[in-house]
Amino acid sequence: MRSEATLELERFLPYRLSLLSNRVSASISRAYANRFTLSITEWRVMAVLARFPGLSSNEVAERTAMDKVAISRAVGNLLDHGRLQRETHGSDRRKSVLTLSPAGHAIHADVVPRAKAYEQALLACLEDEERVALDRIIDKLMRQQAAAAEHL
C-alpha cells in the first residue's frame, strides 16, 4: 500500500482550470471552426495579431503561452489561406512580422461579436461583484503562477 497523498483531481485547481479552459475554447471555437475552417490555435493567433499587429511568431507564442511549433503551424496555415501577411521587420531582414490581411480582418470582425456574446452568456450566472472579483482573482493567479512554479 502506498503512503502517498491522494490527489483529488476533481478538486485540484490546475485540473479544474484546464477543464474549464478546454470546454470554453471548444464551445467558442464552434463560432468559427465550421464557418471559416479555423482551429483554436489559428483563431488565437488572429486574435492576438488583431490586438497587437506586427508581432513575430515567437512573440505570438509568448503572448499566448502556446507551443511554438503549434503557433508556427497555425501561422503557416493562415498565410496559406491569405488570412495573414508576413513582412520583414524594418532594417532587420532576419525578423519577420505578421499582420492580419484584409481577409483576416473580415473574419475577425465576424467572430468577435460571437465571442463576446458567448462570454456574456458564460458570465451571466455571476453578479457584478463576482465578475469584478473573478477578474481580480485571475490577475492574482496569473502573477503568482511563476512564483508557484519554482516550488515544483
What's a concise summary of this model?
The chain has 152 residues and is mostly helical. The chain has seven helices and two strands. The protein has a two-stranded antiparallel sheet.
What does this structure look like?
By secondary structure, the protein is mainly alpha-helical. The chain has a single domain (10-149), classed as Winged helix-like DNA-binding domain superfamily/Winged helix DNA-binding domain (Arc Repressor Mutant, subunit A). Helices cover 64% and strands 10% of the residues. It is built from seven helices and two strands; from the N terminus they run αααααββαα. It has helices at residues 13-29, 33-36, 40-51, 57-64, 68-80, 102-123, 128-149; strands at residues 84-89, 92-100. The chain has a two-stranded antiparallel ribbon. The protein starts with 12 loop residues before the first helix and ends with a helix.
State Rg. 19 Å
Q: Given the structure, what is the number of helices?
A: 7
**Unreliably modeled segments:** none
Termini Cα gap:
25 Å
Relative strand content? 5-15%
- The CATH homologous superfamily: Winged helix-like DNA-binding domain superfamily/Winged helix DNA-binding domain
Task: Tell me the domain tally.
Answer: 1
> What is the CATH architecture assignment?
Orthogonal Bundle
Number of strands: 2
The chain-level structural class is: mainly alpha
Task: Tell me the overall shape.
Answer: globular
Strands in their spatial order, largest beta sheet: 1-2
The first-level CATH class name = Mainly Alpha
CATH topology: Arc Repressor Mutant, subunit A
Mean pLDDT: 92
Helix content: 55-70%
Helices and strands, in order, run as HHHHHEEHH
Largest β-sheet summary: 2 strands, antiparallel
